[in-house]
Amino acid sequence: MDDTYDFVMAGGGAAGLSLAYHLRRNGFVDERVLIIDKDDKRSNDRTWCFWSADETDFDQIAAKRWSKLAVIAENTQVLELAPYTYTMVRGVDFYGYVKEFLSRDANTVFLTAVVDEIRDGDAFAEVVADGRTYQARWVFDSFFVPRNFTVDTKKYHFLKQHFTGWFIETESPEFDPETVSWFDFRTPQNNEMRFMYVLPESPTRALVEFTLFSADLLSEEQYENALKAYVHGVLDIDRYVIHESEHGVIPMTEQPFPRRGGRRIMYTGTKAGRVKASTGFAFNRIQKDSLAIVASLKAYGHPFRVKRAPRRYRVFDTILLQIMYRRGGESKDVFTRLFRKNSIHRLFRFLDEESSIRDDLAIMVSVRWGLFIGAWFRTRILRKI
Ligand SMILES: Cc1cc2nc3c(=O)[nH]c(=O)nc-3n(C[C@H](O)[C@H](O)[C@H](O)COP(=O)(O)OP(=O)(O)OC[C@H]3O[C@@H](n4cnc5c(N)ncnc54)[C@H](O)[C@@H]3O)c2cc1C
């Protein structure tokens, strides 16, 4: 193997594969691409959901698409999504689909190896994987190592979105396959933001996920007990089997993430802060970021000219993180109000960081003023966490 490439993806998960995919789809057909991952990505290590009003590149591998979302607390709000849909893609289908697409040309090489080191240079960067060195004009580094990640908690919030989900099958029809329960708050809140997330694939099959936005993780038993209590006590389902389970921890912080690892190294994915700080969603953001990198390469010959979201979204993320951190028990009220007083389309625009000032004002006034102003005052004026 010749060890010189145009692009090396150090990490071939969502960000590495998405970028390679969008490069090939957008004119970078002759460039040599090496994708290095320590895992062969043949198992379903996660399930992604995202919303979109337009067709997406991954509609054809969607495991399920929904037209309604429900938010459940004391009352149930059912939100009609059209023209949006909420789509679920299994990790294993995404990896298979993108790898098959990339394997059609001989210029893409996949390597299963552990990246040990990435070294910057003037004209090339070097990636050392399993003891061998590869050179590239550009290296995109997307492997995020939680134990190496630190947040300055005097200046920034550091919460985690953590969850355990069960793919369950019931004996009798129990679910409405048209409707995702996005937030079902019928689980003890313990002064934190806690909810159940139910993704029904059919009347008898669903992914049921116990999700928390909080600073500390729970024990395995605590996630499982909450799921059992919800399935039995709230959904009133006694007979079911668990086919698969998933567990995840996603960092939530407004601390800025560096994009540059050097002259020839760019960070992408979680490592580059592509996870939305206040929600944990990243899949769509990674697609948009990949397209922005491709556009920068085309226009400027380097990948770094990617537009940042307007600053106000970081302020909003900070305020939401503050409410979840200090007043976690009130998150249920905040979120149910947001959905009651705003259309889901406005909320999607806001979460996509594409809202108008009018949208933003409407969203701000729909949160209890005292809570919003208190969080703003503490974080922006007192500069406290
Ligand atoms: C369980 C789970 C569910 C999620 N669900 C959603 C969702 O529904 N919607 C949404 O928008 N976001 C979701 N996210 C958040 C986000 O979309 C994902 O975390 C996404 O995979 C991030 O992409 P990434 O490329 O940054 O990281 P990853 O996809 O994790 O890719 C990083 C890759 O680096 C590889 N790697 C690590 N260390 C090395 C090394 N030393 N050498 C070589 N390779 C290495 C890993 O094997 C991995 O393949 C979820 C996250 C998790 C964990």
DSSP summary, beta strand count:
17
Number of helices: 9
The ordered H/E elements are: EHEEEEEEHEEEEEEEEHEEHHHHHH
- What would CATH call the class of the largest domain? Alpha Beta
Q: What are the segments in which pLDDT stays under 50 over at least 5 consecutive residues?
A: none
Main pleated sheet: 7 strands, mixed
Structural class: alpha/beta
Q: How many distinct folded domains?
A: 3
Task: Report what the structure shows.
- The chain is of the alpha/beta class and 385 residues long.
- It folds into three domains: 4-61 and 90-149 and 255-300, FAD/NAD(P)-binding domain (3-Layer(bba) Sandwich); 159-252, D-Amino Acid Oxidase, subunit A, domain 2 (D-Amino Acid Oxidase, Chain A, domain 2, 2-Layer Sandwich); 312-381.
- The protein is built from nine helices and 17 strands.
- The strands form three sheets. Strands 1, 2, 8, 9, 10, 11 and 17 form a seven-stranded mixed sheet that branches. Strands 6-5-13-14-15-12-16 form a seven-stranded mixed sheet, with helices on both faces. A three-stranded antiparallel sheet has the order 3-7-4.
- Helix 1 runs parallel beside helix 2 (91-103), helix 1 packs across helix 4 and helix 5 packs across helix 9 (369-381).
- The protein is globular, with a radius of gyration of 21 Å.
- The model has no long low-confidence stretch (mean pLDDT 96).
- Flavin-adenine dinucleotide binds next to helix 1, strand 2, strand 3, strand 16 and helix 4.
